[in-house]
Known about the structure:
The protein is α/β, with parallel strands linked by helices and 541 residues long. It is 31% helix and 16% strand. The chain has 16 helices and 20 strands. The protein has helices at 25-36, 53-56, 77-82, 92-105, 195-205, 231-239, 241-250, 269-282, 299-316, 320-326, 343-346, 393-396, 408-411, 445-466, 475-490, 520-532; strands at residues 15-21, 41-44, 112-113, 118-124, 129-134, 139-147, 169-172, 187-191, 210-215, 221-223, 338-340, 352-356, 362-365, 369-372, 376-378, 381-384, 399-401, 430-432, 471-473, 538-540. Strand 14 and strand 15 (376-378) form a beta hairpin. Helix 1 runs parallel beside helix 14, helix 9 runs antiparallel to helix 10 (320-326) and helix 14 packs parallel to helix 16. 49% of the residues are buried. Bound molecules: 3-acetylpyridine adenine dinucleotide. Residues 63-65, 152, 158-160, 173, 191-197, 199, 214, 216-217, 336, 339, 357, 362, 385-388, 441, 500, 505 line the site of 3-acetylpyridine adenine dinucleotide.
Amino acid sequence: PGYGPQPDARPVPPSVDAVVVGAGLSGMYLLHRFREMKLSAIVFEVGSDVGGTWYWNRYPGARVDVESLAYSYSFSEELEQEYEWQERYPDQQEILRYAQHVADRFDLRSDIFLDTRVQAATYDEHGKTWLVRTERGDTVTARFLVMATGCLSASKLPEIPGLDRFGGAAYHTARWPHEGVDFTGMRVGIIGTGSSGVQAIPAIAGQAADLTVFQRTPAYSLPAHNRRLRPDEIADMKANYRAFRKAQRESRFGVPAETPTKSALEVTDEERDAVFEQAWEEGNLGGLLNTYADVLVVREANDTVKRFVHGKIRQIVKDPQTAADLCPEYPFGTKRPCMDTNYYETYNRENVHLVNLRRTPIMEITEKGVRTSDKEYTFDAIVYATGFDAMTGALTNIDIRGRGGVSLKEAWSAGPRTYLGISSVGFPNMFTIIGPGSPSVLSNMIVSIEQHVDWVADAIEYLGRQGLTAIEPTQEAQDAWVDHVNLVASLTLFPTGDSWYLGANVPGKPRVFMPYVGGVGEYRKKCDEVAVRGYEGFTLS
Ligand code: N01
């Protein structure tokens, strides 16, 4: 059931100016902007409430990895001043409450259709409109279609034989039961050690009788040093929010930080270790990445961070074999680092066991549990912390057809192709918020979300002022942007990690580095220039 009013019962209007898909942090702000522009807009949301990521990811230990005072909307100064964050890194419930508060405060719910999955969207070239169809049979035409479907929303189970055979309870971290799960007294197996696994493992270990962690690739995880916010730091931020927001927008990752200029290789080991130690103690996702200019560029520089983290793991984890198995070999930062509370410490508990799947791979899921090449493990519950078909999955799961009936899935079969990550040739008047080809997942998402929403709203306003009705990128501009995104990525170590940034976690997915590594500030400048030049690289008609 939906929260508040029951929007499901209301009929969907036959035609609106804009259909937004998704009522997460992107979709909610889009609706707010569109209303300010006096556009009629509706939002379809498959969940039973707003919040997107924070609605779905309810696994124990789920928390944000960007500080709350920075991971919040900037579009309303009143909201900024009124809202009271409790923790430095709030948990899922606190962020969901924030999303719900925003929905209520800006009266967004009346135009959001919950429990409604969009099945298809087809562009009508003559009418220059999108026909959107939902799974429950609604149809609506719209001039603009905005995909606010998120980058990490199409959850993914592993390709392991026998998934349906298991007789106990099975959960995916991103589809967690709303009533929660009590693991007390249970033997639990968890597969996956990305950000979700790293947060869930300590929480489940504290409850379960026994927890076995199946690890294919170890993560680099940094201590979050989470704590309650102090009144003085909240007051400080509230007094300086405008300057802080400006700095966020101009920064590299959407979090203000000094840009490092030194190489990790030009300083002494002592100096470097002291810098790394300070970053580790700060508890900041970008901390270690931001220590030296070449960490993400030069392998030897990256190795210095790798050695430092290995040293930390060996210091914390008592069993030498477990510690060795937890030490990642791929370059630091090429997969998203994790932020944890007591992750490595958890392996010192007697009820926690690590299985290194590089030595003994999983062969199948059985009725009783998990069989590796070595033995069968018996469980009462299995947790899949196996991630997402990231960045493109939520888009290509919908049957989107643009000019000439071409499907987005076909158009992107060799990897996503966009201009600025915002729009794609063949799909006029369709926009993707934080889409592939934009900084998106390499940034504080909310900063990138607001930038995209504002850009899209401004573009639509511009079309209206010019008496035009359609916008679509040119092939040349799109090709040049895709080349640029690839070129910038190829100058870094990013393509060397087998990450979901590259689609490497989905068998058969083309290996293309999807987010734009050029930085939030530079990217914003480019988008602004395009707009100032009358939407350069787009055909307006
Ligand atoms: O997913 P992941 P996630 N057999 O893809 C393993 C954001 N996020 O949900 O690396 C065995 O990172 C897989 O192994 P490998 C954040 O951006 C943020 O954890 O493919 N193992 C990996 O260990 C994050 O990066 C927060 O070898 C299998 C794990 O499952 C993104 O979401 C919290 C397997 C998947 O890790 C995704 O994180 C949570 C198989 N067949 C998420 N298939 C915070 O804000 C997959 N794996 C803190």
